[in-house]
Amino acid sequence: MSQRVLVTGATSGIGHSLVINYLEKGDVVYACGRSAEKLAAISEQAQQLSGTLKLVQFDQLEENELVSALNEVEALDIAILNAGDCEYIDIALDFDANLFKRVIDINLTSVGVLVREILPKLKEATTANSSVNPQLVFVGSSAAMMPFTRAQAYGASKAGIGYLADSLYIDLKPHNIDVSLVLPGFIKTPLTDKNDFEMPFLLTSDEAAKRIDSGIQRRHRHIAFPKRLIWSLKFASWLPATWWRKIMLNSDQ
């Protein structure tokens, strides 16, 4: 039985791979993105696949545009809120408040508007078929598990996404809506291509999409990967604060 799946940030990276993954499975996929040109490119790819593609164009930072575009979306079985950006604050003493606001707005504040607009569409799926629990999926980051140098804006935004997902998990469970939080490690995407540091256990976006799909199918509350990186971060977080602070300070030299 096909599913109705919405993916934001669908035109590149993990989002694009998720769209292709679900189209290959024969699902109805709402691909959300800002660029009409890039959405059209997905449409060309979809002609080779068995699923049904529906393009939803909007700028996530433009609330009226977002609301108008999502009015065209019907009941959903899965909504994956993946769109986001990463910018680094290179000089902490010259803290860039505009950069900080920009990252928080796209990665966190605008997600609140998405949640408001998408929840009724997920709830509609439970009304139509009480045996089906629709799923709301947030794509966070393993970077939120530990403080990293230069990542004040990105890390804060993803930590906020993590808290949002875990809190909604509690409050939406009685309404038969499941919530999952994705915590990926380093994934090769246009965003990470800009990184000037070593990225251990780097995965492709296609590999990430398959792991996310598998976790969603199993209805895992947290979908964290790759395991070697996740356990390394967990172990570091269990160390005394003075130890991991020293590790982070040394790694920045």
From TrEMBL:
Domain of life: Bacteria
GO cellular component: membrane
Gene3D superfamilies from the UniProt entry: NAD(P)-binding Rossmann-like Domain (3.40.50.720)
GO MF entries: oxidoreductase activity
Record key words, sorted: Oxidoreductase
Claim: Oxidoreductase is one of the keywords in the record: yes
InterPro entries noted in UniProt: NAD(P)-bd_dom_sf (IPR036291), SDR_fam (IPR002347)
Family as reported in the entry's similarity comment: Belongs to the short-chain dehydrogenases/reductases (SDR) family.
Protein name: SDR family NAD(P)-dependent oxidoreductase
